[in-house]
Write a structure and sequence with these properties.
Number of helices: 14
Largest sheet: 6 strands, mixed
Radius of gyration: 23 Å
Strand content: 15-25%
Helix content: 25-40%
Length: about 450
């Protein structure tokens, strides 16, 4: 019978294409979104998870009673945990600490043992998420590491299912395929199929965060989950996933967090599509591509997951406002930027993580404290995600000049976003005295004293 399956595995795939109608106003090309969140476990990673488990069963790497282990930002782990449960395996999942609370809760709901590891670790560090997963897989009897980044069954899943579905759904009319680049499996596998099926006519575009190393950025941290290639400045050797086949990609579109989040908001409000952060990156890239195309063009873009896994982030004004991103709702109150006339294109003064105490004291000058961030050789906007702590004059006063500043850090400085209502920002730091980082679109743009924020609040709310 159609639509009846023996297990959850049979329900994976055959997700619909939905045409965008309002956010594409003024565009001649047709843009379809492939809604991968309608897979039974909620994301495009259902396909790769099933493919990897089946391949491991065939090879004998995963045996009855075994344990599935993976490092993931969440979605692959969720799919692996659910499929593992249905097939009688245990699951152990390692996630970075920036993964949303909803994803961690879902992993535990499917019975996974969850390990949260610091996301700001270089690839050779023992706490790096993939290294933790490798260690656990080796230590656990019957442990099998899925290894989505280098597992050929990852791109093969999309070559065998996602690509053929798109080709059939568009009747072979697809001209451009757009997908975010995370592990690279989705864009590579489906892209390979579509190029072959079209005789090379289909163009494959990767969507990448603005600072991701894939597209030529310095690898600085960003806020949209599950896409891009982060490069810690202390990384000894930058290794890209074997699942990412760069020869398939015709172009990369680099999309900043603010643009991705703005597109997410528009999709929810104008198209009725509540999508996840990486979908914002991908759809923003697809809209850019479509702007230069004629009416014969058909653009298909992958929406990897639902916004329901990010309600505490991308659709929460508290989270958005604290980092200076556009709010999902409108408060009608004066914002921090308006109340303090903050320069939105500035860059907050900082101290690099390799500085000595002596150098830090000289950089502090008259300031009482400054943020300490991961040091990079090239200049770029300071992102709040990379603040390690703060160098405080009172803490450094008695320390030897030659000491590393990292040995004398206080907690990170409080952060207040430019888009936050001034009343909410003042309330957040009401028990704090000292400098505060003002963030705009996730970047530190200036420092102000907490007293200035309190005074600005009184001016607008006497």
């Amino acid at each position: 019978m159609s639509g009846v399956f023996e297990s959850i595995a049979g329900a994976i795939g055959n997700t619909p294409l939905v045409r965008l109608n309002r956010v594409t106003e003024g565009l001649a090309a047709t843009v379809y979104v492939k809604l991968e969140y309608l897979n039974p476990l909620g994301s495009v990673k259902d396909r790769a998870a099933l493919s990897m488990i089946l391949a491991a069963e065939r090879s004998g790497e995963l045996r009855p009673g075994g344990t599935v282990v993976e490092a993931t930002s969440g979605n692959t782990g969720i799919a692996l945990a659910a499929i593992a449960a249905a097939r009688g395996y245990r699951s152990v999942v390692v996630v970075p600490d920036k993964s949303s609370a909803e994803k961690v809760a879902l992993l535990r709901a499917y019975g996974a043992e969850v390990h949260v590891s610091p996301g700001s670790r270089p690839s050779h560090h023992p706490e790096f998420v993939r290294n933790v997963a490798r260690r656990l897989a080796a230590e656990i009897p019957g442990g099998w590491l899925a290894g989505q980044y280098d597992n050929p069954a990852n791109p093969e899943a999309h070559r065998a299912t996602t690509g053929p579905e798109i080709w059939a759904q568009t009747g072979g009319a697809v001209t451009h395929y757009v997908a975010g680049v995370g592990t690279g499996g989705t864009v590579s596998g489906a892209g390979e199929f579509l190029k072959e099926a079209s005789g090379g006519a289909v163009r494959v575009i990767g969507a990448d965060p603005e600072t991701s190393a894939y597209g030529g950025g310095d690898g600085r941290a960003w806020y949209v989950e599950s896409v891009g290639h982060h490069l810690h400045p202390e990384t000894e050797a930058d290794q890209w996933p074997a699942s990412y086949h760069t020869d398939v990609i015709d172009a990369l579109e680099r999309v900043g967090d603010a643009e991705a989040l703005h597109v997410l908001q528009r999709l929810a409000r104008e198209e009725g599509l509540l999508l996840g952060g990486s979908s914002g990156t991908a759809v923003a890239a697809a809209l850019r591509v479509a702007r230069g195309l004629g009416p014969e063009a058909v653009v298909v873009v992958i929406a990897p997951d639902s916004g329901r896994s990010y309600l505490s982030k991308y659709f929460d004004d508290e989270w958005l406002g604290r980092l200076g991103f556009p709010l999902f709702g409108a408060s009608g109150e004066a914002t921090v930027a308006a109340a303090l006339t903050v320069p939105l294109d500035g860059e907050a003064p900082t101290i690099g993580s390799r500085a000595t105490v002596g150098a830090a004291r000289a950089l502090l000058g008259a300031a009482s404290a400054l943020p300490v961030l991961l040091q990079r050789n090239d200049s770029g906007p300071v992102q709040i995600a990379e603040v390690l702590g703060s160098a405080r004059a009172v803490v450094l006063a008695q320390a030897p000049d030659a000491d590393p500043v990292l040995d004398h850090l206080s907690p990170p400085l409080p952060v207040v976003g430019t888009t936050d209502p001034i009343s909410r920002a003042a309330e957040r730091i009401s028990d704090y005295d000292g400098p505060v980082v003002i963030a705009h679109e996730g970047r530190g743009v200036t420092l102000v004293d907490a007293t200035e924020i309190a005074a600005a609040r009184k001016e607008v709310q006497p």
